């Protein structure tokens, strides 16, 4: 029997890319490829690149070169670039980087298995000529759901997307709609839900309790510094039934928290005839069995609305977390970016949010050194940052992105001025986010345990206000003895200290709404005060049983935040 073909997926960039990688993994596994973690054990190393800013592109090229080095020593025979940089540069990347044996665009994703097989067999797959993907979908959002043949990574489309085959759906589009995958009856374990005809074709690439789900793709906004819409295309929502189906499947895989991702979640539903669709979808997602935390990322400040703030701050299981990329707060700079708002309007928005959920987490990204930015503009941004009490701040120095409007502006600042402003605002951001973390000392937080270090025993997780990757974390102290920490457990903890944006917290109770904890019956989660059948397990001798919670999403007391340097400015 021939050895199975092996493939490794190396993912760079943001959570959206992670979803795309898992969809590619699902397609490859369904076609018999064996997925391996270590690229040196793979016949083909697929690098899912990021094409957003120069630093991200450099990381992607480095990853491709590193994978190429494996060809000299190990099993690896081919290196293939996919993802945003591959889509954005296509044949130009292939010419500039002959070390990559293949450069595949989004249109190749549905046939990824065939493409890799061709490349592995020594064949050549002609790289695509990059095109503006905004032109692929109709200008009118209402007509987009019925457009056929547009590849949408992470939407779980079937392999016959180009056919535009009808797949009627009461909640979404009608005939000729984008074709979503039907789960083959004989998919191996871990590839498809146990039930449901319109399953996501996705394979998890890690076993952690957190996973992202694509809510939509693309963006209709025209921020002058941003190239994303040109290669991710116009905004298009996934149908609610697909988002729900994928979330149920993830819950069956052991996921406890889902994070909804897209380029702009506030626009969700606008092409499905209901701009408030997110408000109705969120409670349904939070009600999925096994899912104890739903988080929404990428909210556009200009599109925030009272009803959405209400749902985000009052729905059990949905965390009051606001990922609002303000980008700047000086009105002149914002207008030059083709964005809206100013310092006072942004502060009002934050007041509204905190009036409803004082413990809400807020993160944001900013660009400094934008063309025409004056010293007064920078001081205005500093005034905003100093008042905003943000948990996590990402700061980026402006650099030209080809194809963007801002790249054509004439009033550019010198590189050393941009660098100095970046250093100045980054220092301030670090100070302010550390202060914000300190404000949370003494409060209680609800922590999802994500890692238990086998050697040191250190237990880390995240509170409601902390998103994966970009924000801070919680380090739980006193992790031994009365409870047995494991990834996927929810713990109520009191914040006792900080380390920068990270929180140090003392566990008080294990939330038995967690199926992992509830199934355990060895007495280790039952110190003193609470016996079997209690709503939650209490740490013995800790006063104040009122701290306990077994309700997913019940308000937690504390939050924290990181430098956010990995975040991508949108
Ligand atoms: S910065 Fe964000 S909102 Fe603006 S065009 Fe880019 S993706 Fe869209």
Describe the structure.
The protein has 570 residues and is an alpha/beta fold. The protein is built from 13 helices and 19 strands. Helices cover 27% and strands 17% of the residues. The N and C termini lie far apart (49 Å). Residues 159-188, 192-199 and 517-570 have low confidence and may be disordered. The chain binds iron/sulfur cluster. Iron/sulfur cluster binds at residues 219, 221, 223, 226, 228-229, 263-264, 300, 570. Iron/sulfur cluster is lined by residues 219, 221, 223, 226, 228-229, 263-264, 300, 570.
In short:
By secondary structure, the chain is of the alpha/beta class.
Produce the secondary structure layout.
Blueprint (H helix, E strand, L loop, with lengths): L5 E6 L3 H16 L3 E2 L8 E6 L4 H17 L7 E5 H14 L5 E2 L8 H9 L89 E5 L1 E2 L10 H5 L3 E2 L2 H13 L4 E5 L15 H10 L6 E4 L9 H9 L6 E3 L7 H6 L6 H14 L4 E8 L6 H14 L3 E6 L17 H25 L4 E9 L6 E4 L11 E3 L13 E10 L2 E10 L3 H4 L17 E3 L32
Parallel strand pairs: 1-2, 1-3, 3-4, 4-5, 6-9, 9-10, 11-12, 12-13, 16-18
Antiparallel strand pairs: 7-8, 14-15, 14-17, 15-16, 17-18, 18-19
The structure holds iron/sulfur cluster.
State the distance separating the first and last CA atoms. Answer: 49 Å
Which structural class best describes the helix and strand composition? Answer: alpha/beta
- Ligand roster: iron/sulfur cluster
Strand order of the largest sheet: 2-1-3-4-5
What is the radius of gyration computed over CA atoms, rounded to a whole number of angstroms? 24 Å
Number of strands: 19
Largest sheet: 5 strands, parallel
Count of separate DSSP helical elements:
13
**How confident is the prediction overall: mean pLDDT?**
83
Apparent shape: globular
Name the poorly predicted regions: 159-188, 192-199, 517-570
Please bin the fraction of helical residues: 25-40%
Beta-strand portion reads: 15-25%
